[in-house]
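Annex B. Sample input.
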Amino acid sequence: MSELLDQNEIDALLTAVDEGHVETSGEAQTQVFTRHGTTGAMDVQVRAYDFKRPDRVNKDHMRALEQLHESFSRNFGAALSGFLRTIVEVKVANIEQMTFSELTCSLPNPTCFNLLSVAPLDGSFCLEISPLITYPVLDRLLGGSNTDLFIPQRPLTAIELRLVSRIIDRACSAMQEAWAGVVALDVHLRDSESNPQLVQVVPPNEVVVVVGFELKMGSRAGTMSLCVPYNVIEPVLDQLTNPAWDAHTRTETNDRLRGQIARQLEQTKLTLSSVLADTTIRLNELLNLEAGDIIVTDKPADAPLTMLVEGKRKYVGHLGQFKGSRAFKVQRPFEVKDRV
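Annex B, continued. Sample output.
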């Protein structure tokens, strides 16, 4: 039967070890236990694993999710630029795995935290937009110039939430387009909250994929975070690495972008003008001009005129009248050889 040591003997033994009077077995080779048996630590590569934060989404799936949301960022940036009538840049900044509690603790409070329903998937995505870009967007919608804009530290009001919901609706449409090659999602805003820590869409220790975005609008910039819970996308993870989806995404993305750009350009307003005639006069004649004076040019009265679109000559025609208003009748496109 082994002898038990009292506390004084234990302290004496530890002191002897520290002073080098007792040999230890620390120089022995560390044994690593594997499925193939026991081996030395130098023969295998050992990687630290945190059981509190397991990496449940592999690297291939993470790359596929990053590529998918790069398509989302382009679509959302184009839609937001057309809605705000200014250039808005949206790009993916980072993508990582973490627990849901780590995400909620890292977000500011208050903020704009939105829950998105993603039927037919069981669960919700979370979309957080930083106040640093939320309030400049609201100021733009209300006709402001974002000059010396103060960012208040308070939750959004009911009117502001209604305006933000129009931004979220465009994000939902862009997300549906981005995920169309994987699964047909019906994405819409379910609820909004100012304190992320009050929202529990998944357990606190559940693994989520967080996609970080950077938004720039003029001199203003902010972040946006999309939380994708693992248990929500688990049924469709295998479809993310399908080569057919990758090819479909590349071909469909260009077509969608062309269509979106064309639709935005169709609503652009252009300035049209027409030059009646050109002539030269002396400076003293200009100074002596009075009401009723007539300026005669060398251009015949029945000569065609040129229509200018944003200052560029585009069409040739005649000036007339239509229903009591001045009108221009287009005859043909302008050619370089024309001298009108």
